[in-house]
């Protein structure tokens, strides 16, 4: 039977796939938004697995802070805290002064890949141990 954290992780991977497709299609705002969602869902999957708790936040930095109470959070993840700005800025047409650029979207996708890969690695490691 699939556990709830596995469902969150599966969604994270799907958001990442969509973010990559959006990047290729030139939808840079959506690539950034879906990257944020991928990272958020992956971090929540880890928190659910490790603590049984899912914070009600979209903040990547808050999720990383919560995760740091049970795991060592590498600096490469902390460098991706900027993803959280895309939750609002990419969703609303009047939330920023300029359009998204490819470079921003690429960075967001790269960060989502880092976080999703990290989460997958921890979950796989836990699966081998348990």
Give a written overview of the molecule.
The chain is mainly alpha-helical. It has one domain: Four Helix Bundle (Hemerythrin (Met), subunit A) (Up-down Bundle), CATH 1.20.120. It is built from six helices and no strands. Helix 1 packs antiparallel against helix 2, helix 1 packs antiparallel against helix 6 and helix 2 packs parallel to helix 3. It is globular and about 45 Å long. The two termini are 15 Å apart.
Structural class: mainly alpha
Rg (CA only): 14 Å
The residue fraction in helices comes out at 55-70%
End-to-end CA span: 15 Å
The proportion of strand residues reads under 5%
pLDDT averaged over residues: 94
| SSE topology string | HHHHHH
Number of domains: 1
Topology:
Layout: H1 4-25, H2 28-51, H3 60-67, H4 75-78, H5 86-89, H6 102-129
Helix pairs in contact: 1-2, 1-6, 2-3, 2-6
